[in-house]
Amino acid sequence: MIEIDQITKTYGNSAVVDRVTMKVEPHTIAAIVGTSGSGKTTLLRMINRLVEPTTGTIRIDGEDTRTVPAYELRRRIGYAIQGHGLFPHRTVGQNIGTVPKLLGWDKARIARRVDELLDLFQLEPGQYHDRMPSELSGGQQQRIGVARALAAEPNILLMDEPFGALDPIIRAQAQQNLIDIQKHFGTTIVLVTHDMEEAIRLGDRIAVMDEGKILQYATPQEIIARPTTGFVDELIGTGERPFRLLSLASIREAVEPGEAKGTPISADATLRDGLAELLWSGRAALPVEDGGQRIGRVTLTELNRRAARPQ
Ligand SMILES: Nc1ncnc2c1ncn2[C@@H]1O[C@H](COP(=O)(O)OP(=O)(O)OP(=O)(O)O)[C@@H](O)[C@H]1O
């Protein structure tokens, strides 16, 4: 658990992070979203003390971070940034093994961990282990950056716009990869993004920041349905609300017994994907498939109901 308690950072006379209080429960993802300059990166970097808070306290699993040497804190907490920050003259394997090596792991253990992570990130170890970062695509470099941050099995991972530079398709894959890996390791993640769509997709809770303050910290459902300020509403985009709600749930959750004609949709697709397919194909219902088996159908009527503002 990360407990941020009345944390402030001032530069000169201005508080760029202003008395922020928030808790991140273990094994969850908190997304910090806000406009440029709202203080997101500063807040994130105070968690691993890359930036020292001016006032306030941060506790990790009950321990005040000021009582731990900063270098030790940074080895314990994974950190991944936009542009990956890989060492250009070290191989992929050496990059991923950086922190385990600093921690004195033996060679065999480091090698096992590097291969495990390459596998998880869908990069064949035999093929990628000895490559240099310049011999990888942008998306692959980004995945290695995240793999390196996870190498020493940190309970906590801080991510600053990790997917910001990726094109939309690679970005969606990288996001799914992160969700799978977070489930696999149970890592607690704090992620900074300026993209509300990404925050909604990844965050168990979303903190909306403006001018150093947290305006709302709640589940994506709550933020979409009941934004506390006009600014939060604006950031969500009023025209997007019903679609954002639909993108939070899978077809599996809306499936009902019955038949429907035409190409089926996967139970793992989002309700938003389902609506798009219904509208595009001009159908009132789609058959739903799970692992090659028909499990029922999803209807336009049901998606209409689920897209409406929650009461
Ligand atoms: N070392 C510093 N000295 C003075 N001002 C700083 C320093 N670091 C950050 N700031 C200021 O603090 C404010 C918040 O910066 P921060 O990088 O945390 O914002 P952000 O929300 O992450 O922005 P972006 O999305 O553009 O990265 C900005 O106005 C920035 O200019």
From TrEMBL:
InterPro entries recorded: AAA+_ATPase, ABC_transporter-like_ATP-bd, ABC_transporter-like_CS, P-loop_NTPase
Residues forming coiled coils: none
Recorded GO MF terms: ATP binding; ATP hydrolysis activity
Residue intervals of the ABC transporter domain: 2-236
Tagged with keyword Transport: yes
Record keywords, A-Z: ATP-binding, Nucleotide-binding, Transport
Transmembrane residue ranges: none
Family listed: Belongs to the ABC transporter superfamily.
Name of protein: ABC transporter ATP-binding protein
Organism of this sequence: Allomesorhizobium camelthorni
Classification lineage: Bacteria, Pseudomonadati, Pseudomonadota, Alphaproteobacteria, Hyphomicrobiales
